[in-house]
Each structure stands twice: as C-alpha cells, then as structure tokens.
C-alpha cells in the first residue's frame, strides 16, 4: 500500500529536498497511507466530467517537457471507469507533438482547473491510442455528438495516480456561462422593475 501519487512523484531527489526543508515528516504518512487513491471516486468523476479544458504534459524523446492545452465542450474528457479516462483527438494543427511524444513514452500528466471554485486536480497516467478501425464503439463513446471535425484518434488514459492541490493562489475566474447563471436573478429583478 501507500499513496500512488507519492510513489511516482516523490523521487529520491524530491525526498532529499523534503528532508532538507523539514517537510518529509508531513509527507511520510502518504507513503504508508492505506488509501492508495489511484481509483477515481464520485468526487473526481463529477469534477473531471464538468471540465471544459485541461493541460496535458508529455516528455519528448530528447527529454524536454511539453505542455499542451486541450479544450472542448464541458464533459469532453470522459471517465470510462474508475481507472480510465478518454477523449477524442480531432484534427488540429497537425504538428503531432503530444502524439509523437506519447508514442515514444506513454506517460502523461494532466492538470484540471476549476477557477470559479478554486480547485485543481492533477492526474498521472499512461496513454494508448485507439482508432475507428480497431475500436469503433469506444471512439463513439468519446466523440461529441454533432461536432463535425475529423477524429484522428482516441486518447485512452489509464490513471495511475491523482492528487488534489490546495486552492491557494488560484485566482477566481468565471466563464461567460457561469457569469450568465450568476447574474440571471439580477436580470430577472430588472425585468420586474421595468
Ligand atoms: C482548426 C483547429 C481546431 C482545433 N480544435 C481543437 C479543439 O477542439 N480542442 C483542442 O484541445 N485543440 C484543438 N486544436 C489544437 C490542436 O488540435 C492541436 O493540434 C492539438 O492540441 C495537438 O497539439 P500538439 O501537436 O502541440 O500536441 C485545434 C487546432 C486547429 C488548427
């Protein structure tokens, strides 16, 4: 047992720095935790399936980290089961940087933001690619109905670990839809006063 995120992220060098900074004790409990936290619960599922974007990191074959932003309608990143995520990869700028990196090293890190509620979730996993020829049913589960772009592949991510971060330093920001919802009572009041 032990927390899966600590197992992956707290490398020897990281642990040495924690010792030097006096924070190792605080995190030692994670190493022994009876809760591995590598299976998505209701809390993570609801959060993931209401995101409209995330940031995805991969590592190039020359060792460079690379981050790409992925966006789509809320829920485009799907929880297929408690250990698996998926999304449809539509034809974009055809640079194939992330796909090239992940074909070489399938390890991926995602960070999902909820600015309005100052929450963020980090996920670590491994990617495999699927296509319509080999797994048409699974591709069908990933696509957004009515979205006309070409689906080049599906990203299937086996989750190995996740961690919720503290909300500090997340500046609250609101989407137009959230502002619209929050100001609806004001607009209704204005209409009544007219
Ligand atoms: C016409 C067009 C549409 C795009 N639509 C999306 C999109 O809906 N969601 C998204 O995350 N990226 C979108 N992108 C960005 C690309 O898909 C990008 O190629 C992809 O994120 C892979 O980038 P990478 O090569 O840096 O890994 C679009 C790009 C173009 C040119």
Describe the model.
The chain is an alpha+beta fold and 194 residues long. The chain has 2 domains: 1-37, no CATH class; 39-173, Pnp Oxidase, Chain A. It contains 7 helices and 7 strands; from the N terminus they run H-H-H-H-E-E-E-E-H-E-E-H-E-H. A hairpin with a 4-residue loop joins strand 5 (107-114) and strand 6 (119-130). The protein starts with a helix and ends with a helix. Flavin mononucleotide (FMN) binds at residues 68, 70-72, 90, 92-93, 95-98. Flavin mononucleotide binds next to strand 2 and helix 5.
The gist of it:
This protein is α+β, with helices and mostly antiparallel strands and 194 residues long. Helices cover 34% and strands 30% of the residues.
List the helices and strands and how they pair.
Layout: H1 4-9, H2 12-21, H3 24-32, H4 42-48, E1 53-59, E2 65-71, E3 78-81, E4 84-90, H5 97-104, E5 107-114, E6 119-130, H6 136-142, E7 151-164, H7 176-193
Antiparallel strand pairs: 1-2, 1-5, 3-4, 4-7, 5-6, 6-7
The structure holds flavin mononucleotide (FMN).
Residues 68, 70-72, 90, 92-93, 95-98 line the site of flavin mononucleotide.
InterPro entries: Pyridox_Oxase_N, Split_barrel_FMN-bd
Domain Pyridoxamine 5'-phosphate oxidase N-terminal: 41-135
Pfam families: PNPOx_N
Q: In one word, what is the shape?
A: globular
Q: How helical, in percent, are the residues? A: 25-40%
Structural class: alpha+beta
What is the terminal-to-terminal distance?
Answer: 64 Å
The biggest sheet, with number of strands, parallel, antiparallel or mixed sense and barrel status, is: 7 strands, antiparallel
Bound molecules: flavin mononucleotide
Order of helical and strand elements? HHHHEEEEHEEHEH
* CATH topology tier name of the largest domain: Pnp Oxidase, Chain A
Number of domains: 2
Mean pLDDT score, rounded?
95
Give the radius of gyration. 20 Å
Which percent range describes the beta-strand content?
25-35%
Domain Pyridoxamine 5'-phosphate oxidase N-terminal: 41-135
Pfam families: PNPOx_N
Protein name: Pyridoxamine 5-phosphate oxidase
